[in-house]
Amino acid sequence: QQYMVCTRVMAHLAVPVLLLSFSLLCCSSPSRTRKAISPIQAGAEDDDVKSQIEKLWQEVHLLKEKQALQTGKTPNIYMMENGDLRNYARRSAPGSSEFWIGVSDIVKEGQYVDVNSLPVSYFNWDRSKKQPTGTKRESCVALSVAAQGKWQDEVCRSLKKYICEFVIP
């Protein structure tokens, strides 16, 4: 088994999605004649395009998050020796303090499953911080290097590195 910190899991998908989105924004309403546009109209259109691009960028991040949770095989990551995993994370990404491990209770609050929707039977919660907090807002599990590899439930949209497991034959 080989483990790695995945920092660019969806980079290949993000660029085509952004290019396609931008081309749709630019070419979605073709006209046969050119009209003179006042600077005020141009500014409003620029703001509208920027707003649409921002929304698309947020959607790309959501897609990246969803696919990253499904890409790596992670059912054994949280079951392996937690200290080894913490040490690996510390060596692989110095300066990063928390890593997603592919465990969440998004479907049903309090019922943690891995990326394959299999129930999780091993837990390593950071009890000093009263984890898990039990709120619906915090549904994804992160390993905290600072807390000696203990787990914390976090907001799933938080930007963190992933720890992925790959089986190399």
Automatic annotation (TrEMBL):
Residues 1-28 form the signal peptide. InterPro entries: C-type_lectin-like, C-type_lectin-like/link_sf, C-type_lectin_CS, CLec_Tetranectin-domain, CTDL_fold. The keyword Disulfide bond applies. GO terms for biological process: ossification. PROSITE patterns: C_TYPE_LECTIN_1 (PS00615), C_TYPE_LECTIN_2 (PS50041). Residues 57-165 form the C-type lectin domain. One of its GO terms (molecular function) is carbohydrate binding. It comes from the Eukaryota. The keyword Signal applies. Keywords: Disulfide bond, Lectin, Signal. One of its GO terms (cellular component) is extracellular space. This is C-type lectin domain family 3 member A. It comes from Oryzias sinensis. The lineage of its organism: Eukaryota, Metazoa, Chordata, Craniata, Vertebrata.
